[in-house]
Amino acid sequence: MRAEASTVAPVHRPETGEIVLRAQGLHRSFGLTRALRGIDLEVAAGEILAVMGPSGSGKSTLLHVLAGVIRPDQGQVELDGRRIDDLGEAARARLRLTEFGFVFQFGQLLPDLSARDNVTIPLLLAGVRRGNALVRADETLAELGLADHARKLPAQLSGGQAQRVAVARALVTEPRVLFADEPTGSLDSLAAEKVLLSLTERARQRRTTVVIITHDPRTAAYADREVVVRDGRLSGATV
Q1: Where in the numbering of this chain does the ABC transporter domain appear (predicted)?
Q2: Residue 105's pLDDT band (boundaries 50, 70, 90)?
């Protein structure tokens, strides 16, 4: 089947600021299911963008393509003006380790490691010496109000505390872009608020660009801007 032209989706641009992440004409299918149908999107440095949409709309596929987890069938993705979708798997894996941070719905902390050791993992994988990695992990945990919990295992933490550890792990490498996929979907409203405040405040302090995938308007309210994905297309934007 012939791909639809990318012009079916408008280009959603931030009003001001240097463009860090740019997607053009993204199409992606899984068998007969067309998850993305011509998406153009630009995200500015330091911007917090919420990508909203119902289940099955294509918003998580969009995140995975933007983050280099999967390649688009058509179109391209640029980070700081450099195309990344055509990189090999090893290069994209390195990019995800050094330039991107990730927060998932259930945190995905390693259960047998302390909060401190969980936060050091991306640093160690990037080649940072263990002593330096531990210092940076302690500093980041302290910034998020978790200094007293650094040596606890994930099972000893509340859901909100564990998710803030996941935020610390995502921020510790000082990524250019942090991707958060339903980061508060498993939390009650009070814990969700603490996680979102921690994430957005630290991101703004560090001028980290954030892309949040969510179906929850309360989560999207913490963003600077919203776009809506419906049936694999961007259908609107709110500034």
Answers
A1: 21-239
A2: confident
